[in-house]
Input
Amino acid sequence: MKHTRALWATAASVAVVGSAVVPSFAADAAYPTEPGTPGTPGPACAWSAAVGPDGWNLFYPEGSANYWIQPYVVSDGTTLEIEGTYPDSRYLQMATYQQEGGWFTTDDGVDSWLTDHELVPDEGSANPFAQEGAEPGGSFSLTVSTDVEPGTPNTLPMAPDAAPEGSVGYLIYRVYSPAGDDFSAIDLPEVSVVTDGVSTALPTCGPDDISDEVPDEILDLVGDDLTDTWTTEFSRQPVEGLFPNADTGYVERTYEPSKKKDEVLVVQGKAPVQTGGNTPEVWPGDGVDTRFWSICMGLTDVPYESITVEQPDGTNELGCASDDQTAVDEDGYYTYVVGTEDQRERIEAIPGATFLPLSAEQPRADHVLVLRNMLPVDGFEESVVNVPEGSDAAATAEIMGDYYPESDTCTIKQLEKKGAEACLR
Output
């Protein structure tokens, strides 16, 4: 899978409402507020930034996903009205996040995210993630509001109950594994701001609306101590900071590459059975464990970038291996081997091995490996999602069983001669 990585970022411009400072992300900061045009100040256009292969590289984005961002100001008199279509992709999610960047649940028990199969289609349309035989392209409508009653379809809370008027919120549109691996083919939902019954549509941002610098407001959400508690064995640490996915569990380990020329890191575990392909399937599916899983390589310093690898055509690819890019043996096990580009050819020649890249620019820097499980079925008890946050390696391994990613270093020569099991002492 190859993606062109264009840096979508922002000018440092902001719109101000009372005491709230709102990241605008677009080159034109002001949302229309001329007389007779009610609206909440904020971005001049919709979906003014994205995280992923075609966007910002921060907080270890998955190479098969894009995360479009729509900031807004929390106001009792304002709603966001979203008109979208079900994409031709394996997964989508709409989620709102509080000013500090985390998802939340209201005091009445309303979660701040809706996954594809939960989005009720508009009248006359069908949801391909929930209805057998339905095609992508059907429409749905979504409302973001401060007044959300439990059980109301297609409605997301704008902010936690304690959030003050004028604070900042973020709507995130996630898409994983689009058809043809082509994110440019995704039709972004239309966004309208409704204040006191008057609706103002935001035009969708284009490339010319976007500058190339991540604003401080977003970097502040990432924080500077994410990896402080991570260890050299996979464990599940609390996920704080920028927009974690509530459908997903993550286990991580750090890795300091050796100066020994032939040494590599080997990671092996049982692979979950995932929904296949790059098109919608009814969820939950038969005979599957989870919707998606993958592993990504990153660096341990801010802004926590996934490794990028330059391709022969000059584009960059994120250093991730998704489920459909991972070799699995006849017993259902994967074997990842982490090494340098100089080691790639030898590693890829090893039967059953899937190569993961170290940073070409900083091959001896501290790295991190992030394994994710997304949307497991109820019966998949060994999923990462079922590991309590804050669990150490032993507790994580006990719950995950055969699905726990064992890891250790060895030489490529040992790996070639004796196999991965000889490396995992």
